[in-house]
Amino acid sequence: GENVEQHPSTLSVQEGDSAVIKCTYSDSASNYFPWYKQELGKRPQLIIDIRSNVGEKKDQRIAVTLNKTAKHFSLHITETQPEDSAVYFCAASVNYGQNFVFGPGTRLSVLP
Amino acid sequence: DAGVIQSPRHEVTEMGQEVTLRCKPISGHDYLFWYRQTMMRGLELLIYFNNNVPIDDSGMPEDRFSAKMPNASFSTLKIQPSEPRDSAVYFCASSFWGLGYNEQFFGPGTRLTVL
Fold first, then answer.
1. A101 contacts B103? CB cut-off 8 A
2. Residue A109 CB neighbour total at 10 angstroms
């Protein structure tokens, strides 16, 4: 079955700097890659996603890139702000998002 | 819509007791998921349903866990008997896969503590 790895497990950046979180997946048939953000004590929420026929997607300060050949995808957050502090989960799906396999998560801390 | 509703929000019980967690998905959604979240194991998919039918229960840890979805508006996750290692936050999520690439909407979670 699908296996998703995520690095780093924790990440601290200064406010205003960029943050990058990387994920790899094992199943080359995966075709949908969402990213979820979970603030402390809250529920996970979708922040951005990318389909396998797209190499990059941007939404304001957030971008995701996908390299199908290498089977890895990354989340990029620019101009980080304190409210970006949270745990970020990547995920991969082989059935266009019917169900996902989540990575272990990255705890991002944005320091003032 | 009120979003995915879960009850109770917190549950404290003693080892050996039966625990029932409840979920009401977003109206019109055809997929329902049960997840367990712990520090050690992260976010684990336990089981998911499509149109009230269980599709994949390979994540259910053992026979002590069971889940049902008697109709499109209600699902339960039952643990009997409960053990301290079942302590976790249990999330229910729902989605509509009509056009593919669905977003899963999570409920607020149930924090379960088994003493």
1. no
2. 14
The two three-digit tokens of residue A63, written as one number? 């971008």
Q: Is the pLDDT of residue B40 over 90?
A: no
Question: CA nearest B15: which of B86, B75, B94, B73?
Answer: B86
Distance CA B51, CA B71 (A): 8
CB proximity under 8 Å: B 70-89 to A: none
Confidence of residue B100 (pLDDT cuts 50, 70, 90): low
Q: How far apart are CA A35 and CA A102, in angstroms?
A: 9
B63-73 pLDDT per residue, tens: 999 999 999 99
The Cα B111–Cα B9 span in angstroms is: 6
> What is the distance between the alpha carbons of residues B47 and A49, in angstroms, rounded to a whole number?
23
Both structure tokens of A73:
């995808």
Q: What is the mean pLDDT of chain A?
A: 95
How many angstroms separate the CA atoms of B66 and B93, rounded?
17
Condensed to tens digits (0 to 9), the pLDDT of residues A65-86 reads 999 999 999 999 999 999 999 9
DSSP string, A37-89: EE-TTS--EEEEEEETT-SEEEETTEEEEEETTTTEEEEEE-S--GGG-EEEE
> Residue B87, SS3?
coil
Q: How big is the A-B interface in CB pairs under 8 Å?
A: 49
Mutation target for A interface from B38, B43, B44, B53: give the one with most A CBs within 10 A: B43
Tokens standing for B85? 């290692």
